[in-house]
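From: lab user (bench 3)
To: helpdesk
Subject: output format question, protein + zinc ion

Hello, I'm new to running complex predictions and I'm not sure whether the block I got back is the full result or only part of it. Here's what I submitted:
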Amino acid sequence: MSVNILGIETSCDETAAAVVRDGREVVSNVIYTQIPTHTLYGGVVPEIASREHVLKINQVIKKALIDAEMTWEDIDAIAVTYGPGLVGPLLIGVSTAKALAYAKNIPLVGVNHIEGHISANYLYDVQKGTDLSAIGTDPVAHAVPTKHVAPPYMCLVASGGHSHIVRVDDYTEYTIIGRTHDDAAGEAFDKVARAIGLGYPGGPKVDKLAREGNPEAIEFPRASVGDSPYDFSFSGIKSAVLNYLNGAEMKHIEVNKADVAASFQMAVIDVLANHTIQAALDYEMKTVALAGGVAANSLLRETMKERAEAKGLTLHCPELIYCTDNGAMIAAAGYHEFMAGRRADLYLNAIPNLKIGER
Ligand code: KG4
Ligand code: ZN
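Helpdesk reply: Thanks, we reran it on our side. This is the complete output you should expect:
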């Protein structure tokens, strides 16, 4: 008997819902992105995000069921992001999920958004088909066939709000090995993009422009932090880029934006990749994985693959669509919480600063 989880995600600027079977098979995945709305303001406006979620959430959930060709009868549990994230947007998802769980008498599971990002590594898309002949059996994942990653592994989580190196000990057990002391990696991409006039969200735009530039044109700092070899600091790199741009402007020197994008991106990726691979080696992990919006970065994926393989490690990356915010990753994480017997009640509340592994 398979277990179908409806995942709901509203922590930032995507209103998303998905149905996932057995924590891995994406049966439907609906994402309404508010990016065009927030682009007008150069970043996410929390009040507007909340209003957009209210307007779209019911339709998004309904479409997730229709696309999955399922009714409420087929859903075993509702998983919802309850933190970390923007409080208003989170509350829309949480209150909708609670209302549905109560009205339809379906169990409710609260999911940590970052644990959701990590769980994107377990997903595969049934619509596109997967070559089952190439797939082994994953003994831990309730005998579900997979060619994907299974714990333990070392995961780099890099998004707009978070940069962590997390040791995934089991499907619901996490240990933080490294963290950022200031900006998140995605935040640095967004700020640098804005400074060179690329607009919001900056990550994909820097990624694209960097392909035309020389990553060695400008030497931006690769910051290490104190005595922790796994921690990050990105504010120094960001400031170095801003100083470089200001300096050039004062001297009336024309800036090669593609070179700035490429050199900045290389500096960030160098640090992300080196720290993650070092953590994997030091903690004797055989597999490394990527998660979060920045995991969609083409150079990060390539660099991590090269450097991981050079050290005899296997790299796993989620498909691009599962790197940025989506409901399927919440359903995947929710599945393992559900199987572990964890349930939320109708007092579930949004926790904007929820930590990994906190319940
Ligand atoms: O995971 P996500 O959708 O939302 C958060 O949980 O924060 O991540 C969004 C972040 C943004 O900062 C965006 O600029 C960055 O991920 N991002 C990228 C790329 N695609 C998205 N950064 C670098 N390269 C990309 N291709
Ligand atoms: Zn996210």
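A quick orientation on your result: Confidence is low (pLDDT under 50) at residues 129-146. Let us know if anything else is unclear.
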